[in-house]
Amino acid sequence: MTLTDRQQLSYIASQAADARLNVELETEGMTLNIGPQHPATHGTLRIIARLDGEQVVWAEPVAGYMHRGYEKLTEVRTFPQVTSLINRIDWLGSFANEVPFILAAEKLMEIEAPPRAQVIRTILFELSRIANVSLFLGDLGVQMGAITPVFLAFRDREYILNLIEGATGGRFHPNFDRIGGLKDDLPKGWIQETKGAVKKLEEFCDTIDDLLFGNEIFQSRMRGIGVIPADIAKDYGLSGANARASGIDWDLRRDQDLPLSYDLADWKVWTHPDGDSWARCWIRLQETRESCKIVGQLLDQIPAGPVMTKVPRIIKVPEGEAWVATENPLGEMGYYVVSKGDLGPFRVKIRSASFNNISIVPWALKGVYVPDIITILASLYFILGDIDR
Amino acid sequence: MLAQLAAEFPGWYPEWNIPYWLMSILRVVGGLVAVLLPAGGIVYIFLFKMMSFMQSRLGPMEAGPYGSMQLLAEVGKWMQKEDLAPDNADVRIYKMAPLIVLLSTFLLVVVVPFGPQAYFTNFETGIFYALAVASISVLGILIAGWSSANKYSLLGGLRAGGQLIAYELPMVLATLGVVIQAGSMNLNRIVEVQNTGEIFGIGLIGNPFVITQFIGFLIFMIAVQAELTQSPFDMPIAESELVSGYMTEYSGFRFLIFFIAEFATAGVFGFIASVLFLGGWGVPFTWFGWEGISDVAWWMNFVGPLIMFTKMFALVGVIMWVRFSYPRFREDQLQTFAWKVLIPLALANTAATAILKVVF
Asked: Which of B156, B180, B217, B288 has the most Cβ atoms closer than 10 angstroms to its Cβ?
């Protein structure tokens, strides 16, 4: 088919009109600084986003506004003193930060905590996970404008914090774990109280499941948004619930042999094939339930005995290097401890989960809308202390 | 005594012989009361107390009994603050914007009837006027967003512009059903039609349009929710992403004016919705044997406002209830909902109403 002159002319004219329109309507991008002071970054994370209208063309997280230099500070502390520093890394689940470091030190000293201490450690570890993730579940609503769930989360998290305070003396920063065991035994009646609190938290999970996860708007904001495929997740070093939400069946609690008593309990590692924001949140909800289950079962299995092995009065860790990582509320958290046989560590490298989890932000935010920045960030779930440690 | 009074004042306003100056003062005071009292009441009852109880906390308890004076304390705080404007702001327009938003609220309350004679003005195209002046607030919000010289404000202002215009349409279409059924755009006439009406020949509760126009009522309330930028339609403010949207740069009494305008507009829309759908100020006229609006007893001018306030608080209560329990839409989902769901539904509703009107 050949075009007539008239058709050709009209085609050229329409092309010219389009070109002119494109020149006239050429819009300028806008650079939006989300943070360092911004309600959604709950801390001082800064995200530089290049916007085209409401669509993100390019985004980059800037960390370091709260850098506290813990890796350096550990070099001038003795081994027992380090725990009071590092439980400020992920400040919502403090006890969980102490455990891998203590385990690394114990590995170097070739000692092991007594069975009673191991079980109590595991219980406190899981309680701090519940305290951490329950706040995440409440905070999800706030990121999307539903203000009620966060108050429920704060109310119910209080049960856990009271328990942690009852056992350790500190609500937020227990500083309870010691090389070779625990500082103290559990107080009287604590086990009974914990059983009640775990029931409350299970109810809280059901409430959040109804209130938030069952909400159509929440689903439409979450499903299919910020999809991270499994291989990309591996490339960026995602860990914890973020990796499991992309279908990677990997949980350090189950997959490695540490002196923690997870094998005493019957529980399940949840994975989700989708890899979207919804999957990440849902995995965390399920994990909170599993944690409640683990705590409930372990409470009945605490063996009798001491909570502390024989350790020298002045702890000197023999020369060597050790790497221990555990499945923390935010993901894989590990300490690479190098000792030269002194009172304190020679060098400690902290592998915190949020720092790696947030590294996927430039990839995940490409092409999304501004409101989705917030939901994706919320579902990746970072804690600033865990990024800038 | 009552009968004597009623005989003396058969209920028609000119015979009250209120001088023009007194009428003007009454109107100004009445306007302030009709705008500020709902705003204060809504903020205290719903924002402070209902929200607190929903979130298992007490809310303000210190200022006054049960924190009832909290709002006055807040107003005092805001009034003391410095009147700030950003360096790059278009200052004159920046300072005007909240006043324009509040102005639209005052213009809106002008047509709302509170009783047979208790209205500020009563003209034939009342609802048309109300829908028209309701859009003025878009102007204020847009210029607030633009003149703040802030990217968050700009995004918030543009979102507000898109949203308010999109939800104006379903609102107009939902109102159209009522207008067709009542056969008038005069708000007092709409009240009269509802209260003299009958459902299948039974005039016990009149014929409030919420029954016949139930779809219209739902659409209207959803559109009101969006017009007031309350959650789940609070994209323009979206405190977790846009900090505070178009209000980001405002502080002090200019923020206060935005704040009052938000809740006063909620109140006024509550009034308008109760006039359109719930029978307004009236009680079913058959209860007292009134034939039409000219028979209504004079005391309805005092009882009417109370009835209106009750209905308004009930409606705004629902709006606030939704606001405190739902997360927000994304901007594109919100537009999709307006254009693909609400507007076709409202059009169908209008068409059905028109057909039924002709048939019966």
From this structure: B156
In-domain check, residue A71: no
Count of positions (residues) in chain B:
360
Res. A308: pLDDT tops 70? yes
Q: Is there a domain that residue A64 lies in?
A: no
In angstroms, the separation between the Cα of residue B331 and the nearest Cα of chain A is 8
Q: What does the alpha-carbon distance between residue B328 and residue B330 come to, in Å, rounded to a whole number?
A: 7
pLDDT, tens only, A57-95: 888 888 888 888 888 888 898 888 888 888 888 888 888
The minimal CB distance from A39 to the residues B57, B234, B239 is found for B239
The Cα–Cα gap between B313 and B320 comes to 10
Q: Is residue B65 part of a domain?
A: no
pLDDT of amino acid A336: 92
* 3-state class (DSSP) for residue A368: coil
Contact B3, B299 (CB under 8 A): no
Question: What residue numbers bound the domain in which B105 lies?
Answer: 81-359
Residue A69 lies in a domain: no
C-alpha–C-alpha distance, residues A356 and B19, integer Å? 77
Q: Write out the two tokens for A336.
A: 């690479």
* Whether A371 and B330 lie within 8 Å, measured CB to CB: yes
Number of compact structural domains in chain A: 1
Q: How far apart are CA A282 and CA A379, in angstroms?
A: 10
| Average pLDDT over every residue of A142-166 | 86
Q: What is the DSSP letter of A186?
A: P
Q: What is the CATH number of the domain that holds A136?
A: 1.10.645.10
CA atoms of A172 and A153, how far apart (whole Å)? 16
pLDDT score for B7: 54
Task: Give the pLDDT of residue A41.
Answer: 65
Q: Are strands A177-178 and A320-328 parallel, antiparallel or unpaired?
A: unpaired
Residue B236 lies in a domain: yes
**Tokens 């950003």 identify what position?**
B86
pLDDT exceeds cutoff 70 at A25: no
Note whether B17 contacts A: Cβ–Cβ < 8 A.
no
Amino acid found at A256: Q
Which residues share a beta bridge with A320?
A339
Name the average pLDDT for chain A. 85
For residue B12, pLDDT over 50 is answered with: no
Residue A338 contacts B, CB cutoff 8 Å: no
Alpha-carbon distances of B211 from B201, B218, B328, rounded to whole Å? 15, 11, 29
Distance (Å, rounded) from C-alpha A224 to C-alpha A226? 7
Q: Confirm whether B284 is domain-assigned.
A: yes
- Interchain contact B336–A (C-beta under 8 A): no
Q: State pLDDT tens for residues B115-138.
A: 887 788 888 888 889 888 888 888
Task: Identify from B51, B240, B337 which residue to disrupt to test chain A contact, counting A C-beta atoms within 10 A and taking the largest count.
Answer: B240
* Encoded tokens for B236: 């323009």
Closest to B55 (Cβ–Cβ): which among A38, A148, A371?
Answer: A148
Answer yes or no: do B240 and A143 touch at CB < 8 A: yes
- Residue numbers in A near B328 (CB within 8 A): 144-146, 217, 371
Number of domains in chain B: 1
Which comes out higher in pLDDT, residue B127 or B8?
Answer: B127
Range of the domain at A318: 77-353
| Region A3-29 average pLDDT | 69
A298 within some domain: yes
Identity of the residue in A40, A145, A148 whose CB atom sits nearest the CB atom of B234: A145
